[in-house]
Design goal:
The complex is a heterodimer. Helix content of chain A is 0%, strand content 55%. Chain A is mainly β. In chain A, the strands form two sheets. In chain A, strands 2, 4, 5, 9, 10 and 11 form a six-stranded mixed sheet that branches. Chain B is 0% helix and 58% strand. In chain B, strands 2, 4, 5, 6, 9, 10 and 11 form a seven-stranded mixed sheet that branches. A four-stranded antiparallel sheet of chain B has the order 1-3-8-7, with no helix packed on it. Chain B is globular and about 40 Å long. Classes of the chains: A mainly beta, B mainly beta.
Chain lengths: 113, 112
């Protein structure tokens, strides 16, 4: 079993829809949770990160972490064609020289105009 | 603006060649990482380093080595390139809290 599971998609939704992207994980030591966006032929760029459980909002994006269920989500409101990309979740145990950042395999999202 | 720079965007090498991929960061980060990204497999960690001259194996270190002689520079070495090492290689750096990793643009390596 992978430490982090993410549905690869592809996911196709019409412009303006609310998008929900999700990851599950198995390691209860994870404390920091991140979402990255990756456009084709580019490196991933950090969208949001959260510490422990709870919600965090940034514009049209909301990240949720439920540590009791080992489940994290990214919601995109009023989705735009420019949101079409691959979205990767990532997580780590935090401050430790041996702490690695573990990534999900990514969900490919397409927003139809 | 934070920056992680990889020396090449595209690289074509022959089987058996020794290949160097260079990565430089200007954020004074202690941690640096090398990943490869393949369709359907996501990002897989090859090696990471948490300090100068320190390195740890990731999930797929076979066929690779790394060098970190200076804090800002982390090199990935393919000792003898093989066709199954054709991939997108991504370098990243982070603060020791590992809250955020910043990525370079990637090097698409093709081994023929």
């Amino acid at each position: 079993q992978k430490e982090v599971e993410q549905d690869p998609g592809p996911l196709s939704v019409p412009e303006g829809a609310i998008v929900s992207l999700n990851c599950t994980y198995s390691n209860s030591a994870f404390q920091y949770f991140m979402w990255y966006r990756q456009y084709s032929r580019k490196g991933p760029e950090l969208l949001m990160y959260t510490y422990s459980s709870g919600n965090k909002e940034d514009g049209r994006f909301t990240a949720q972490v439920d540590k009791s269920s080992k489940y994290i989500s990214l919601f995109i409101r009023d989705s735009q064609p420019s949101d079409s990309a691959t979205y990767l979740c990532a997580m780590s145990g935090g401050y430790s020289s041996a702490s690695k950042i573990i990534f999900g395999s990514g969900t490919r999202l397409s927003i139809r105009p | 603006d934070v920056k992680v720079t990889q020396s090449s965007r595209y690289l074509v090498k022959r089987t058996g060649e020794k290949v160097f991929l260079e990565c430089v960061q200007d954020m004074d980060h202690e941690n640096m990482f090398w990943y490869r990204q393949d369709p359907g497999l996501g990002l897989r960690l090859i090696y990471f380093s948490y300090d100068v001259k320190m390195k740890e194996k990731g999930d797929i270190p076979e066929g690779y080595s790394v060098s970190r002689e200076k804090k800002e520079r982390f090199s990935l070495i393919l000792e003898s390139a093989s066709t199954n090492q054709t991939s997108m290689y991504l370098c990243a750096s982070s603060h020791p809290t590992n809250t955020e990793a910043f990525f370079g643009q990637g090097t698409r390596l093709t081994v023929v």
